[in-house]
Amino acid sequence: MNRVARVFSGIQPTGVPQLGNYLGSIKNWVALQSQHLDSASSQPHDQYISIVDLHALTVPRPPARLRTDTFEMAASLIACGIDPSRTVLFRQSTVHAHTQLMWALACITPVGWLNRMTQWKSKLHGSQQYGSLNVHSAAAQSLLTGLFAYPVLMAADVLLYGATHIPVGDDQIQHIEFTRDVCDQFHKTYGHVFSAPRVLLSQTKRVMSLKDPLRKMSKSDPNDSSRINLTDSDDAIIRKIRKAHTDSIQGIS
């Protein structure tokens, strides 16, 4: 009997999403609700979207703010077209198995695998120019364990639901490769339990910050002018674009 294809995605509760979230992820998730992953099959697939509030703890914030941001993210996803009758939409922390599986996976994951991950380096260093930064570097001694180890939680998120396909941008492929490696390591240790997921690569290119073209547009940027929020008024969008960082070449490049 063939397994039903299952799509899993996660999004941090940052409140109302910004344009990069919508074009890079949410728009694709909405479209997947009415698409078939296999054009040769008429069998529908399952779709799970988790609001990953445990991942959000890598940047500490007041509990009341986290609850509000989680509610606003859920409301925004539904407003953008996520249909709870066709997509399982849930808050990560309500399913305790996420952290239970993370611990089991962490116990078989070498530190060297985490040391090679690029995202903690870019967040710690504040840019993409992190060079030879590693966990033993002086600059990494303030690195919080949650930020360093969160790829293991991401792997647990995916493997827990038997996901077959993960929609990601090109900057997230490393995390799926990490998940597949952890999956293989688990099978070598305990026997075959999980299915290794495949990448569904988004066709949308990264939307960059309006203030720093070397960084992605992000809700974590303290400068609100660096992004276009989905709830921004027309006037606010026009004002932000007029003040956006541009090159000196006339026309579109």
**Main sheet: strand order:** 1-2-3
Largest β-sheet summary: 3 strands, parallel
Strand content: 5-15%
Shape: globular
Query: Can you give the mean pLDDT?
Result: 88
Helix share, percent? 25-40%
Alpha carbon gyration radius: 19 Å
Tell me the distance between the termini.
51 Å
Class derived from helix and strand content: mainly alpha
Low-confidence sequence ranges: none
List the secondary-structure elements in sequence, H or E: EHEHEHHHHEHEH
The counted number of beta strands is 5
How many DSSP H or I helices?
8
In short:
This protein has 253 residues and is mainly alpha-helical.
Structural topology:
Elements: E1 6-11, H1 19-32, E2 46-51, H2 63-80, E3 88-91, H3 97-106, H4 111-115, H5 119-125, H6 145-160, E4 165-168, H7 173-190, E5 198-201, H8 234-242
